[in-house]
Amino acid sequence: MQIDSTSQNQSRVQVTRKSVLWNFLGLLGLLLPLTGCTTMNSMSCRDEERLAVQELLYFGTETPSGHVTAEAWTQFLSEIVTPRFPNGLSAWQASGQWRSASGQVIREPSYVLSLVHPDDIAPSKAVQEIIMSYKTRFRQEAVLRVKSYTCMSL
């Protein structure tokens, strides 16, 4: 009987150790990505540079009634984007694909918009307004926004 209870105790200790290890690894897996986000914008720039945010926005062009024409895109840039970022921007055509909410893979011509701005609330809000305006105007399900921190100089 003594042998039986000893082996049961050892099994419980092993199970407890495994549980603690898996809990620790799970917690570590959750926390590591968060620490990466907090340190990304604490990078240091050289004296002639300053910290900035680069945003890449990906706009699909297929709509329920056709597609966004070059003229409609140019008008959108003039009316919506340029007033919010008058100091400059870059835009180019691309070919893209993405998975819609229905699960269908959509392949379509796209536009990419690159914006570089200070890490402040006003430009971030302006980017959100651009996205919402495009989605509403051209009846889009999504606009992809990629935000990264960088150093810039003029």
Number of strands: 6
Instruction: Return the CATH architecture of the largest domain.
Output: 2-Layer Sandwich
The fraction of residues in strands falls at 25-35%
- What kind of sheet is the major sheet? 4 strands, antiparallel
Structural class: alpha+beta
Enumerate the spans where pLDDT stays under 50 for 5 or more consecutive residues.
35-39
| Gyration radius from CA atoms, angstroms | 25 Å
Identify the quaternary structure here: single chain
Q: What does the overall shape look like?
A: globular
Strand order of the largest sheet: 4-5-1-6
Gap from first CA to last CA: 81 Å
Annotated CATH topology of the largest domain: Alpha-Beta Plaits
Q: What is the succession of H and E elements?
A: HEEEHEEHE
The count of domains is 2
If you had to describe this structure to a student in words, what would you say it looks like?
- With about 150 residues, this protein is an alpha+beta fold.
- It folds into two domains: about 1-40; about 50-150, Alpha-Beta Plaits (2-Layer Sandwich).
- The protein has helices at about 1-40, 70-85, 120-135, and strands spanning about 50-60, 60-65, 65, 90-100, 105-115, 145-150.
- The strands form two sheets. A four-stranded antiparallel sheet has the order 4-5-1-6, covered by helices on one side. The protein has a two-stranded antiparallel ribbon with strand order 2-3.
- A hairpin with a 2-residue loop joins β2 (about 60-65) and β3 (about 65).
- α2 packs antiparallel against α3.
- It is globular, with a radius of gyration of 25 Å.
- The N and C termini lie far apart (about 80 Å).
- Residues about 35-40 have low confidence and may be disordered.
